[in-house]
Amino acid sequence: MIDGYFVYMDICSIALFMGMIFTVIYRRTYMTSSGRFFLMMLIVGLASSVVDVFSISAHLGELPIFILNSIYFSCRVFLAFCFCLYILGITDNWHKFYRKPWLFMLLFTPFLSILGLLTANWWTHWVFTVDGGIYQRGMLLNYGIMYACIMIYFLVALIYFIVYRSFFDNKKRFAIIVLYPLEAIALLLQHIRPDWLVEISATAIASLVIMNIFERPEDYYEPEFELKKHSSFEEDCYKAAKTHKETSVIFVKIVNENALNQKLTYKEQISVRKTIGALMKTTAKDFSQRCEFYWLGRGQYATVVMNYGHENAEAFAHTLRRRLNVPAKTDFGIVDLYSNIALVNTPEDTTSAEHLFAFLENFIHIPGILDSVLELSKIPNRKDFEINMNMESIIKRAIMQERFEVYYQPIYSVKDKAFTRAEALLRLKDDTYGEIEPTLFLPEAERNGAIHKIGDIVFDSVCKFIASPEFKKAGLEKIEVNLSVSQCMHEDLPLHIMDAVKRYDISPKSITLEITETNDEYSIKMMEDNIKVLKELGFSFSLDDYGQGYSNMDNVSHMPVEMIKLDRSLTASENPEMKVMFEHSLKMIRDLKKEVVIEGVETEEILSKFETSLCDYIQGYYFSKPLPKEDFISFLYEKKGIKMEEKKPMDAECKEEAQVENE
Question: Are residues 605 and 631 in the same domain?
């Protein structure tokens, strides 16, 4: 106790703040913007504790005590200001105040007001007085006006924390919220008992809780490379998108990463990654840019430039590309580096974190070395690129909103001189991008497994059509449905198909399943097992796109298919050599006792060539492009001279149903 004051809590606070400052500096958590605000908060807290202890010593004299108390109150308000800045940092909202000086000055106003009041206190004594070495509270402290300025900062911090609470888990939410009751209790106690110096102690305890939960470099930092983690990159991108932060994200892909890893030891790989990180940091320093640096794994790195205006971002990216495409000096020697660099400016190029991650996924799969920096804003066919980047979410949305639709293309029977078959073809119409080509969405559906759900949609639609009276009335015998390799390999494929067949009570003989060739022996074995089961159930099979890619007659001869569809690369070519290949292929298929479908017939000249050949069926745009079901039925009815039944308006149908119910 000193001059009637209990100072033990302040002394404990001094020890706590000193320990935390040492920990922050030792663990280098001050490297982030929020970490720097936290360190500033600890330093101000330490200063407050020290000043609080000395300001109660009456033997120092009136002037020193007056000065020390003025410093103490300045530190107390500035500490609240630092806490507010820290919350703005961890919620990634500091950039809004940095870009708008007037907004920052507005935030700074309560502290400036206190400084003004403390300066005027030399004459007014409104805050406190020192009489005979004895400290006494003034009017502003008694009425709580002084602490109202502190509460303004705590309130602003609380509002931002609540608005962006989704950024944090429950443990982190508790770490921030616990500060408020602690500070409230401490203020109340010190107001009731001015001799209990507990204000700063509550702040020190709350700061310790925050440090142990928020300031943990092992959660977001790779100490070996001195770069932030992939998980930290994703978290920071989500925050930036949510707060509309302007950044330039520069992606780096080391193209020869795998080759380097095969010949380097683990320590040498670490050295290479540190060298790449050092080159990124040096480039940022040369351009005087504030950046965060990340290691994303698999030879991928990212630099997020927080320049609030994208100044020099393009020059930065081009300089980094030059430095990462020359031999680099590491701890163990010289290493050849080959890299691709991409630049994305947010929010101009994209406002979505998922969009950004999709771009990265597409970027890292680009083969070879690019001639220049890939800038998202300068990609020529931007729409297709954007569709590719958003394809996973487009497919999910299409499944949920039932945006997939089955179209039908008629197949002409040479023998019957009529359209007896049709091929079911999938189409996707998205609200944002319009009609999307199957060549864009099917590869992604196979990659992420959505192809199986899409397959169920197709089979349900096809079986429903076959069960309808229009199917037989139009003279159709079979519908051909495409199966991807991944579908054919799925062990539950027969169950999924038979589920739709049984639901609509149709015969498996009315469906032909189209498959494509594969060179993978494991895939072939899995396909053969499923095909065998499906054939036993009554389904027939055809081989699609023969003549495209790696067609192998030996493979074809062993495949249990009844029909082979010759690709338009064989049928529509004017190349004499291709014509010879076509004739030989046609003869061999005939010798194997299999039916032949000619694809890609677009003109009458091509049609006349095949109508008298040995083919069984002809398919192509000469007859019709793929059509929606209603238009397809109209097309067949027209060819057969059948008049379409006019549909009754919806209100007429409702009236008729109501009349039946009344009767």
Answer: yes
Asked if 481 and 537 sit in the same domain, the reply is yes
Is 295 contained in some domain? Answer: yes
* CATH label of the domain that carries residue 329: 3.30.70.270
The whole-angstrom separation of Cα 86 and Cα 104 is: 14
DSSP secondary structure letter of residue 648: P
Predicted TM-score (pTM) above 0.85: no
| CA–CA separation, 536 and 616 (whole Å) | 24
Please state the domain count of the chain. Answer: 3
Per the CB < 8 A criterion, the answer to whether 253 and 299 are in contact is yes
Same domain for 499 and 369?
Answer: no
Terminal alpha carbon distance of the chain: 98
Q: Are strands 563-566 and 540-546 parallel, antiparallel or unpaired?
A: parallel
Check whether residue 13 and residue 121 sit in a common domain: yes
Residues 251, 389: Cα–Cα separation, whole Å: 15
Domain that holds residue 431: 403-640
Residue 34, C-beta contacts closer than 8 angstroms, at least 6 positions apart: 86, 89, 90, 214
For the record, the structure tokens of 645 come out as 């039944």
User: What three-state secondary structure class fits 413?
Assistant: strand
Nearest to 280 by CA among 339, 234, 216, 232: 339
Same domain, 381 and 442: no
Instruction: Give buried/exposed letters for 34-61 (b at 16+ CB in 10 A, else e).
Output: bbbbbbbbbbbbbbbbbbbbbbbbeebe
Same domain as 76, residue 63: yes
Residue (of 533, 530, 585, 595) closest to 561 by Cα position = 595
Q: Which alpha helices (DSSP H) does 287-412 contain, by range?
A: 313-323, 353-364, 382-389, 391-401
Choose one of 358, 389, 420: the last residue of a domain.
Answer: 389
CA 172, CA 167: separation in Å to the nearest integer? Answer: 9
Which portions of the chain are predicted below pLDDT 50? Answer: 1, 4, 648-663
Do 210 and 224 reside in the same domain of the chain? no
- Cα–Cα distance measured from residue 96 to residue 88, given in angstroms and rounded to the nearest whole number: 9
Cα 49 from Cα 118, distance rounded (Å):
19
Distance CA 312, CA 319 (A): 10
> Strand runs (DSSP E) across 255-312, as ranges?
291-297, 300-305
* Within-domain flag for 652: no
- Domain assignment present for 631: yes
- Residue 365: which of 280, 486, 447 has the closest Cα? 447
Cβ contacts of 215 within 8 Å, gap of 6 or more: 24, 27, 29, 35, 38
Q: CB neighbours of 21 closer than 8 A, spacing ≥ 6?
A: 39, 42, 43, 46
The predicted pLDDT at position 631 comes to 93
The answer to whether 388 and 362 have CB atoms below 8 angstroms apart is yes
**Cβ-based neighbours of 516, under 8 Å, separated by 6 or more:** 484, 485, 543, 544, 545
Structure tokens at 302: 């990212």
Distances (CA, A) of 591 to 355, 552, 609, 612: 53, 16, 21, 18
- Residue 405's CB is within 10 A of a number of other CB atoms, namely 17
Pair 379, 501 in one domain: no
Query: Which of 366, 389, 412 lies at the terminal end of a domain, its last residue?
Result: 389
The CATH number covering residue 67 comes to 1.20.1070.10
